Amino acid sequence: MIVLNKIYTKTGDAGETALGNGARVAKHSMRVAAYGTSDELNSFVGVARLHADGEIDAALNRIQNDLFDLGADLCRPDMEQDAEAEYPPLRMIDAQVERLEAEIDRMNSALEPLRSFILPGGSVLSAQLHVCRTVSRRAERMAVELATMEAVNPAAVKYLNRLSDWFFVAARVANNGGKDDVLWVPGANR
């Protein structure tokens, strides 16, 4: 159980932070940037939820919980030592990716195929979901870059990749089932 009774500790005042295994690293390290960006994404999802209801809101709630799981996964670098850890580390699993895929397929089945790229916008919820999509892509790029330097759970990277697709399709659903999508017109302002 997590207990947070003191919010500031002063242990990060010199520019370092503790990872999930207790190791101290620079706050600008790629690992901290990757899980920090997933935390940023979670905040944007919270803003999107202000405009969501029903199944989209319920799905966004699940995604917010998953993003905390993702942060817990990314903040613990020593995957090869998971078995010896005092507490089993929380890792993303393929079932979380598969849930996103099933939700994407279900939402997309009710949409007309795209004949053009779409511009972020339409409804407020759709615009917010597009912001989530782009922050998710940035978090994915950071996790992929981190994976070139250190071990990263492949399911975490897959989750971020699928999540940005989820946000794209959900943004179309939020635009009246795609009917209110704003289409890109190539060269329109030449």
From TrEMBL:
Compartmental location: Cytoplasm
Any single GO CC term annotated in Swiss-Prot or TrEMBL for this entry: cytoplasm
Keywords: ATP-binding, Cobalamin biosynthesis, Cytoplasm, Nucleotide-binding, Transferase
InterPro entries attached to this UniProt entry: CblAdoTrfase-like, CblAdoTrfase-like_sf, PduO-typ
Enzymatic reactions: 2 cob(II)alamin + reduced [electron-transfer flavoprotein] + 2 ATP = 2 adenosylcob(III)alamin + 2 triphosphate + oxidized [electron-transfer flavoprotein] + 3 H(+); 2 cob(II)yrinate a,c diamide + reduced [electron-transfer flavoprotein] + 2 ATP = 2 adenosylcob(III)yrinate a,c-diamide + 2 triphosphate + oxidized [electron-transfer flavoprotein] + 3 H(+)
EC number: 2.5.1.17
Entry superkingdom: Bacteria
One of the GO biological process terms: cobalamin biosynthetic process
Keyword ATP-binding: yes
Pathway where it operates: Cofactor biosynthesis; adenosylcobalamin biosynthesis; adenosylcobalamin from cob(II)yrinate a,c-diamide: step 2/7
Key word Repeat present: no
Molecular function per GO: ATP binding; corrinoid adenosyltransferase activity
Domain Cobalamin adenosyltransferase-like: 7-174
Family per record: Belongs to the Cob(I)alamin adenosyltransferase family.
Name of the molecule in the record: Corrinoid adenosyltransferase
Organism: Aliishimia ponticola
